[in-house]
Amino acid sequence: MTRHRIAILGASGYTGAELVRLIATHPGMKIVALTADRKAGAAMAEVFPHLRHLALPRLVTIAEVDLKGVDLAFCALPHATTQEVISALPRDLKIVDLSADFRLRDPALYAHWYGHEHRALELQAEAVYGLTEFYREEIRAARLVAGTGCNAAAGLLAVVPLLEAGLIDPDEIIIDLVTGVSGAGRGAREGMLHAEVSEGFHAYNVASHRHMAEFDQEFAKAAGRPVTCSFTAHLAPQNRGILATIYLEGEAAAIHAELARRHAGEPFIRVLPLGESPHTRHVRGSNFCDLGVVADRRPGRTILFAALDNLVKGASGQAIQNANLMLGLDETAGLMAAPLFP
Amino acid sequence: MTRHRIAILGASGYTGAELVRLIATHPGMKIVALTADRKAGAAMAEVFPHLRHLALPRLVTIAEVDLKGVDLAFCALPHATTQEVISALPRDLKIVDLSADFRLRDPALYAHWYGHEHRALELQAEAVYGLTEFYREEIRAARLVAGTGCNAAAGLLAVVPLLEAGLIDPDEIIIDLVTGVSGAGRGAREGMLHAEVSEGFHAYNVASHRHMAEFDQEFAKAAGRPVTCSFTAHLAPQNRGILATIYLEGEAAAIHAELARRHAGEPFIRVLPLGESPHTRHVRGSNFCDLGVVADRRPGRTILFAALDNLVKGASGQAIQNANLMLGLDETAGLMAAPLFP
Amino acid sequence: MTRHRIAILGASGYTGAELVRLIATHPGMKIVALTADRKAGAAMAEVFPHLRHLALPRLVTIAEVDLKGVDLAFCALPHATTQEVISALPRDLKIVDLSADFRLRDPALYAHWYGHEHRALELQAEAVYGLTEFYREEIRAARLVAGTGCNAAAGLLAVVPLLEAGLIDPDEIIIDLVTGVSGAGRGAREGMLHAEVSEGFHAYNVASHRHMAEFDQEFAKAAGRPVTCSFTAHLAPQNRGILATIYLEGEAAAIHAELARRHAGEPFIRVLPLGESPHTRHVRGSNFCDLGVVADRRPGRTILFAALDNLVKGASGQAIQNANLMLGLDETAGLMAAPLFP
Amino acid sequence: MTRHRIAILGASGYTGAELVRLIATHPGMKIVALTADRKAGAAMAEVFPHLRHLALPRLVTIAEVDLKGVDLAFCALPHATTQEVISALPRDLKIVDLSADFRLRDPALYAHWYGHEHRALELQAEAVYGLTEFYREEIRAARLVAGTGCNAAAGLLAVVPLLEAGLIDPDEIIIDLVTGVSGAGRGAREGMLHAEVSEGFHAYNVASHRHMAEFDQEFAKAAGRPVTCSFTAHLAPQNRGILATIYLEGEAAAIHAELARRHAGEPFIRVLPLGESPHTRHVRGSNFCDLGVVADRRPGRTILFAALDNLVKGASGQAIQNANLMLGLDETAGLMAAPLFP
Questions:
Q1: ω before D342 within 30° of 0 (cis)?
Q2: Domain, as residue range, for A292
């Protein structure tokens, strides 16, 4: 198989390293450039010693990258700076972006949640939302794909089919979610120290988490009218994994049947038998998303669960899944490794 | 201060060890007997080496204990066997029970949730529910106090005042809760191995958790009519700590004001400023319960949080708090140690 | 590529699951039988839900397996029962055994360390010790290969080349080692509960650990005379990973040079630059073993480090590496996945 | 009991918070001032929410503290700045310093290990090394006590008595040690993030760790001649706890007998029965140090273990133990809380 030539912009963070890890055994991709502005000049093995066996290009600044001959760039840069970087890239370069910059289609919604006007409106209009299971054909044809928020991915894969099928009350959606710490990135912050995070549990950004904007956008599209859910994210003392526990008004059996039907052909969605609920550890390191449905003891109510690895299906695995489509590769190429347990 | 003479029946589990830990520096209690049927004959230091510096009686069987001269017995035995053991104890012995056997006042409710008829109905009728903050005077006068479920304690301290004050819709209560592993006890089970539990997160006993019976009982009493909540418990990879995230229909400001008012004089309830949410790590090892109130973005909805240490305020600390009252001691005696962080 | 037909005897433990995980994406192997005596009849997905996406044969008893047409069997059964099971297998079936039963060549040494006479002396004589880097050609020709102890693998890969080269004093070898909990297996034991293991550290089997027998055997072979090392194993609160810290009398520069030379062509040994020491997290989930050499401040002394994943290079990955050789496959087939970090 | 008036300089780090935690229930101390230059103006409850129930003075700068009426100051400031701060304090103020600035008596030794000349030589000459068990009478009379390094405390409590008794070869001491992450402090550093530290194990500062200077100083004093040991520190994924595994040439029985004899009256040293080794989890949150002795399989060699909580016996608990002596209080006041397990 010819290997497509890949650049990773922003390779010194966890999602960047995860892209390298996954591409290392990908039959159709080859890394030709890695950037990290602050660590330019370093070898990847210095920044991520677990990758030391790989023959990788040295980290450079974005300005130093020769993009000629690059088939696709993954962009794993911080929010806000991303839109400026991508604006400066060639307009025919295929891009999968992992930041939040191009997820929201409505500029007003973006400005509301991110606190400033979008500075690349044309690109924003062009970008396709990267939840493969719902935008597969658009992604196949896209030049710029915006990877979803990791929490958003978990909630959307579970709830969107139900809104589309009219099986739940759109006004009664509560998403209670827990995420591991790697979602917060590699930046040094007191609150993410081991001594602060381990052996404890707490909620964060209560009632103000930005991933709600993605729920609003995609739920409204699915329901055909505005939808406002409740959403609370918690931080658990584990590195990887998101579990969404979703409280719905709707019948469990119908909900389960619809999810099983809708995701029947999906290579990465594993719908558990009715009555079972998933564990984050059972998707660790993999591109799978496990869905579980349990009838609440309150009649007409259902508890719906979604589990995925925030760095894989919630970020870098999803990005490669999309890139596979954009490059005409098998959608599952490089992504079928089984989860790592224990 | 004269030290009251204390027996602990069932001292080889985590709640038993926690009672010993707390009583070790309690000015008004002295341990005179420790039982553990399977480990009878052993020194406590063999079973719990962290307690090796204490001069403690050797573990014996219950049959071997001389209860004459014992002022109060803590009973930390498994469910179901507890009712038989306590039935055989002197009727004038003060008892604080940490099992589920005497929590439910209605024998039918007990039979429904625990799968068999109660075998000590007279004692069941006598027992006082051990949530100190709501049953203080009854506990002071009681002979037999039934400690609450650890999860129940978290939910009840947060929600009961709101039902009593009529500030929330009793039909729209969702309690999403996470607990550490020590609540599962010291019995060897595959599912509680470090390799199974660490680095992952999952729900358990979904829609069937027995602590719902306590919510039903106490919420109904507070609301003056039947209340059925939704409740989901999750297991987090940490040893101690419960965080309840509770979704309510009601106004956050009023809810916060009522909780602050109601718990104003409570020595162990710390109500956080409106808009803040608690961490389990900030109550670890202590008898505190932290409550937090945040307005949801959906108007008229509130997200309410309760955090406590399942082995302390959720079990052994609560038991000592109740025993202090029953023995005429200062309610806070032996319980004011600050949380252990990090 | 034709896929060789593989049976896994003892598939319900962690090393069994790890074999399945690795074979799932192996281009030259296909699982045709899985056994687990106590869980016979169950689907693998019930025992290990993380593998639920795989089309796997149902678990059966060993007696039920039709071994005709099986090219190679991995045997991941408990010590002692293994020798009886393998004795009953066809004498032309290729076998990679992961137990301790065939690691020691000297029956007297076996009897000393394992407390009973070996019951399959003929097989013991036939077995090849499975440390690929030192027995590659023997393994290629072998019918029965005995996988090494996980701790032994770490120590041997680091020290054997130095004894062979005469660079260290054989009488002054101290191996201080830490291992994650998965090495203890999936059996339910109080001492391996999350609440017992997490947030703490301790030594175990001090001065009596059975993996010392393997050091004695292989060190003596390398040095050409008896060698008795000191060895202490500790349990760390992590699932995977072994780090050996080895104190030696010898010159760091020469030691580093010899390790670099000796392992230069090895696909799975990564020798770090002189002065650096490895992390277990940088080999997690992979078949790599990282070696590091640092000069002690005491002249003529060296501190040598080896890190590997006990379930991969220490067990199931090593087993597949050996099976690849025995089946005439590329030695690295199915094993080049990069470590999972974080 | 009259409560002595206490100031804590540097209260925003872990050792500062631990001092507050321990003093909160200390019968003879009362906190009257807390400083934290960068967080001056904040309430302690904002910086350490677990302490929110305490009535504490607001954080101020050191310049703002009125030291009149302060009986004793704990100084928990960073190395190097400490010597300047203490130089500016009144010369009659009792001080327990937790930094490294006054641990080394020899200015040349200090300059060698810390890379600059000491800037308060007079204070350095005055300071007493704070290992209570060996300097009790000097500490009772001291004005300025220098708390030991946390790793040093573990090694010294175990080895010094043996050197003094001439039971071991001073030239063959290897201290292999593991510590939890809280010893690294609360400063935000990439390497101490949960995602970097959890689920992994590694050595750090190999052959160059500064706590070796304390071993050199105290071992030489005990042996009556220079002693150079090997010392390797590792980081384990746990918040608290140090375990030193020490390899010695000497007889286990004699070593055990001497440690038992020497520490017989010590309130915080628990010598385990010969052949047992301690766990860090069994001292967590307490001021105990557990010592264990096991005979190596190599004749004449012994493996010696020491476990303590780095934030308590290794820092803040030790500091209070010393302060108790300096203030004429019972040495154990406020320090007898049992370890927190699990």
A1: yes
A2: 151-309
